Amino acid sequence: MPKEQSPGKPTTRRYSAEEKAAAVRMVRTLRTELGSEHGTIQRVAGQLGYGVESVRSWVRQADIDEGYTPGVSTVDARRIRELEQENRELKRANEILKRAASFFGAELDRQHKK
Predict the structure, then answer these.
(1) pTM of the model
(2) % helix, strand, coil for the chain, step of 5
(3) Domain ranges in the chain?
(4) What is the dihedral sign for C-alpha 80, 84, 87, 89?
């Protein structure tokens, strides 16, 4: 169940992996029992007090992660974020090295011309 929200605080909340997995299992179980996907996410979200779009995205991502539908898995998305961060850091370091090389190159030219 969702934790109590403090007045004046944003309504966003982090759900644990266990809460997300339980919601996905409930949606899948309900779909199997009803033989239909129609309304299952909204029903489960209402029962748990979670946002409909949150539950919908968890089910969608679980389907991708488990190979039921095509898309970028959670593991791949994490790795892409890590590589993008590493790329930004390397570009920043490269820029610093270029500036340092330019500075020291100019300094050597000045000393050589004296």
Answers:
(1) 0.66
(2) 70, 0, 30
(3) 15-71, 75-114
(4) negative
Look-up: residue for tokens 């779909």? 31
Provide mean pLDDT across the span 35-46. Answer: 94
Please say if the pLDDT value at position 5 is more than 80. no
With beta carbons less than 8 A apart as the criterion, state whether 63 and 69 touch: yes
**Token pair for residue 16?**
């644990």
User: Domain spanning 15-71: which CATH class is it, in words?
Assistant: mainly alpha
* Predicted pLDDT at 107: 76
For residue 15, what pLDDT band results from cuts at 50, 70 and 90?
Answer: very high
Q: Please return the burial class of 28, using the count of CB atoms within 10 Å of its CB with bins 0-12, 13-18 and 19+.
A: middle
Q: Per the structure block, which two tokens stand in for 110? A: 């000045």
Tokens describing residue 5:
């929200």
